[in-house]
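Provenance

Sequences were taken from public entries as deposited. Structures were produced by running a predictor on each sequence independently, with no templates supplied. The record for NAD(P)-binding protein from Aspergillus eucalypticola is shown for reference.
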Amino acid sequence: MTFEEAASVGMGLMTVGLLFRSLGLQTQISPSPDSTNTNKPFVLVYGGSTATGTLAIQMLRLHGYQPITTCSPRHFPLVKQRGATAAFDYVSRTCKEDIRAYTKGTLAFAMDCIADSHATTVCYGAIGGDGGRYCALDRYPPRLEGRRQNIQPEWIHSATIFGEDVQLAGSYHRTARPEDREFAIEWARHCTHILAREELQTHPLQVQKGGLPRIVGDLPLLRSKQISGRKLVYPVGSA
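Predicted structure for NAD(P)-binding protein:
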């Protein structure tokens, strides 16, 4: 693994760990992650072609789940190569119905890497009639909590893994959560073994020259959504 690849996975894997914990998913490696056993539970990764999404898909498969995902059709090859059982066009008017049909109404877990109104609507509509759990990487619309009483929603803030107050305004402020730090320590050890066995691929990288000063100049690329299916990495030293 290169320095650039290593730099791209740290917070991503920590975020995936918090998603696993929020949804109550098992954190033991499956003895047969690549088997075709159709009894494995489905987990929806909304935004599977994001940097967190491709890591989540791989970790779900390694831990014995059937990851399904939404993204742009041009990224279907990427997410399927990373292990998605099925991929759905997120802009399709029948996206949530298509997911329900594919999972036969059994979907009980949704990871939302986008967390806008459309994303939450699709996730809630895709979860089966028995309900389940939904976890987002950002604050979801407040009205979501009353949409379906049999779905337990949550959103996570990855900065809580440091065990200190998150000094941000409004609902983004979090008091220190020592339990998140303890979880992160154990999860990091777990991920270290996975990486050592080379069982995980990083997100496709776009390495940019210019170090930290280049980042500000590249912000328009993100705002205009020109970066899709790739993660920008900026080397800052001679290493």
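The longest helix spans residues 178-196.
The beta strands are 42-46, 66-71, 86-89, 109-112, 132-136, 151-155, 205-207, 231-233.
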